[in-house]
Design a protein that fits this description.
Blueprint: E1 2-11, E2 14-24, E3 29-33, H1 40-48, E4 54-62, E5 65-66, H2 72-77, E6 80-82, E7 90-94, H3 95-109, H4 117-130, H5 135-138, E8 141-142, H6 148-162, E9 166-170, H7 178-191, E10 197-201, H8 207-210, E11 215-220, E12 223-228, H9 230-239, H10 242-248
Length: 249
């Protein structure tokens, strides 16, 4: 699904990623952990194609195709979803109308007609029931006055509707409360399948009490320096990151 080799990247002439390798297969959930400033959000943004970063070396392949030259929208159309892609408040545009537009734009980019209204409604009903999202929530204005939990609910709903091949959830700075953690975790657990993959970026081990990852990676100083199973997250919780840094010297 995703294959990253020797990825090096800079922002404002500062090298952030220093030769990062990562392979994610369909059906897998990967957690990326690591100290603040390690480059986790940078990695997420670069996979999604945010333009402020400069990739100076390495490759990013999605299903065998090099996506490193594609614009963010093209990557989205190829099935890459990054949480908080749409954090803007849009007064007067409901959660539902926003997602309808996003879906039809993706279809248009692929040369398809708009999704018939009846199918769209059915999909909205199914996904909102699966995720236990209230009808009233769907008619609210996008992000306007949303609490942390509601923002997460909106994100997970977008993810459910867009059915990405690769979902990247960057949970770093949002001060997730336990409610928001559960919303994210439930969403991921319900939406994961053998055909998609999820990368969860977090420095909270707590989140991984609810989402059990197949692999846990530690990103430190621009590289993945350790990979393990879910037990690695517990070890990090107990021991911090210093022992990993010491192993590196
Ligand atoms: P993490 O998500 O692991 O906490 P980030 O990817 O956000 O780390 O940041 C990695 C490093 O890149 C940090 O040193 C940060 O200061 C720097 N950085 C990130 N974004 C920018 C930016 N827009 N301009 C300058 N430096 C940045
Ligand atoms: Mg940070
Ligand atoms: Mg971050």
């Amino acid at each position: 699904m995703l294959k990253i080799e020797n990825l090096q990247a800079t922002i404002e002439n500062k090298t952030i990623l220093k030769g990062l390798n990562l392979e994610v297969k369909a059906g897998e959930v990967h957690a990326i952990m690591g100290p603040n400033g390690a480059g986790k959000s940078t990695l997420a943004n670069i996979i999604a194609g945010k333009e402020e970063y400069e990739v100076t070396n390495g490759s990013i392949e999605l299903n065998g195709e090099d996506i490193s030259e594609l614009a963010p929208e093209e990557r989205a159309h190829n099935g890459v979803f990054l949480s908080f892609q749409y954090p803007v408040e849009i007064p007067g545009v409901s959660v539902t109308n926003f997602i309808k537009t996003a879906i039809n734009e993706t279809r248009k980019a692929k040369g398809l007609e708009d999704m018939p209204a009846k199918d769209m409604l059915k999909m909205i009903r199914e996904k909102s029931e699966l995720l236990e999202i209230d009808r009233k929530f769907l008619s609210r204005s996008l992000n306007e006055g949303f609490s942390g939990g509601e923002k997460k609910r909106n994100e997970i709903f977008q993810m459910a509707m867009l059915e990405p091949k690769l979902a990247i959830l960057d949970e770093t700075d949002s001060g997730l409360d336990i409610d928001a953690l559960r919303i994210v975790a439930n969403g991921v657990n319900k939406l994961k399948s053998k055909d998609n993959a999820v990368i969860v970026i977090t420095h909270y081990q707590r989140l991984l009490d609810y989402i059990v990852p197949d692999f846990v990676h530690v990103l430190h100083d621009g590289k993945i320096v350790k990979t393990g199973d879910a037990s690695l997250a517990l070890e990090l919780e107990a021991k911090g990151y210093d022992w990993i840094k010491q192993e590196l010297v």
